Predict the 3D structure of the following.
Amino acid sequence: MKVKENNLEAWLVTKISSLTGVQEKEISVEQPFARFGLDSVAAVSLSGELEERLGTKLSPRVLYDYPSVKALADHLSTLD
Amino acid sequence: MYELQTHVRQEQQNHDLVPGTNVLCGVGSQNTQPATMGISTFVDVLRWRAEHLPDKQVFCFLVNGETEGDRLSYAELDLRARAIGAALQACTTIGQRAILVYPPGLEFVSAIYGCMYAGVTAVPVYPPNFARPERALPRFLSILSDAQPSLVLTTSLIKSLAEKLSAQEPELKALSWVATDLISDVQSQEWVEPNLPEETLAFLQYTSGSTSQPKGVMVSHKNLICNAEIIKRGFKDTEESSCVSWLPPYHDMGLVGHILQPVYVGGSVFLMSPLDFLQHPFRWLQAISRYKVSTSGGPNFAFELCLRRISDEQRSTLDLSSWRLAFSGAEPVRAATLDRFAKAFECCGFRREALYPCYGLAEATLMVSGGVAGQPARVEYADSKALEKGQAALTEGSADGARTIVSCGRSALDQQIVIVDIDSLTECEPQNVGEIWVKGGSVAQGYWQKAEESERAFQARLVNAGSGPFLRTGDLGFMRDGELFVTGRLKDLIVIDGRNHYPQDIELTVESSHTALAYGCSAAFSVDIDGKERLVVLAEVRRFNRPGSDGAAARSNVPGREVEAGSVYQAKEIRLQQSLDMKEVSVAISEAVAENHDVQAHVVLLLKAGSIPKTSSGKIRRHACRAGFLANTLDVVFPC
């Protein structure tokens, strides 16, 4: 479970980096997404990419309900 | 003139509601024909369609953007409109405002037409999430206080959520909430067809203006009929036209373009929630493919999103050959995006000639200009240095400093577009860039309860010719061979030493000047300093650590630093490294701006990553940046 969570966190960090231009090592898992300039279009689009990766349905607003990498990864790991 | 009208009438015979409606929006009396057989409001439009195409499915909602859900035929829509209209007639009067708060779906569609059937002015708003009110509630409340509605129309679910919230929010409690999904079809029998002059307002569009100063554009039935005809001609719509829309139906492109327009032409439309599109952009193209849709589009970013998210596998399932009109509007159209989209989806049968850049704004109902459907959009290259001087000097694409601009097509029917020099308020020389002014039947009636602002924006006149009144769009551009090219927004324009600088051009230069800077994270504006206009540049620094209150965070991210954590030496090293890098970044910015734009960046401030004022969709808020600079409230990391 722990390994899976870390993989998901790492994947999220990579995605956010490519969407915002913020370097990966700059992205703290505890900071809110807005801190890195992730806008609403990118946030909803990312929820869709998460659906594809996890094979499970997610609310388009999931990044608003769990607004940091850690919070989101923790939540998603409970969905199994 | 007579011949032209006859010719047009014949061409339209199969598709017109009635002969004569095709020249409703004349500017001068010699161009106007009164509507015959009584089509002068959108109530007439829907009533006519319900009579002649009762069983045709006009609306279908795609749940999750994929599964067919609610549907409405023309007769069913007319029935719901009569029922809701009757309910409104029982509790309010013509000209009163009703706020419309709906989730994505067809209930909103019925409510809009229901308002029109009662002569009530609809005020559609983005539904605030009542479970999390902090986000959209302030804007909702400010629109409430501006529009002064007598009612809120909504679903029974939202009504109950709002009632729970109204304990804390007295403004909500004071309103009368009507759940339209509870209005029975039987009530349609009580409907009395109102006598509505064509100047009657259909709705207020709150797209422009800030949260603190919302501006409701007043759109009349006459405006709607006029613009619907312009769009129909531009798109070459017929009863066979079908569309897909994921656009928010509370804003002009979604509302006018996809809830009113299909009814005007007798076509059909599939609607989906914007969130369902954003989550999986493939759903948009999939619907076009599945339902053999002819007409669909969106802002530039939607095409980019498709390029980014849609896989090769998904593309192999698409047949986009039916898509003959792919409009792009509502934000600057980028030639590169259109080009890449056409290339990427060519294998799906998408035709490049379907791409249709257009220009419009809520103050002109929706569309101001568009191309010739089926013909590729004209692309030109303007010399950047000449643009700075307010001149549109067209050049080759390969030339140094050439800026690509896509044509937004021509004006339509009797509508006039004029390019105006804002200092002299006279028409520009053909080779100059100026403010775009529009005159015609689509120009809205003004801003709700804002006499001064309305006068300024909607009643502009040219000084030498005295002709008018015109709508001042606030956008800049030039005309070439009757085609409109839009170059930027007037209020953002930076004028220094008599030369014009487009902030987005300077920002691009700034962002490319150093690896520590990222796309979309800088702002350029001018400020009066000691009586002289000066350029100010803000830029977020993104690659290096910033001195933070949390020393631990700073340490952990520094690459290759093996120095013992917590040592004074390490902390000092980091600070030196950081301030050196900051200076380098700042100098790089100044040099690049001077070199590329021949203007001095008087002030360069580096900001903490993520702190530059932006809208929720990621656009830089230059006005807020400027205000923050003047008030000293920005999160500045250099110079300290």
In short: Chain A touches chain B through 24 residues (CB under 8 Å). The helical segments of chain A are 2-20, 40-54, 62-65, 69-77.
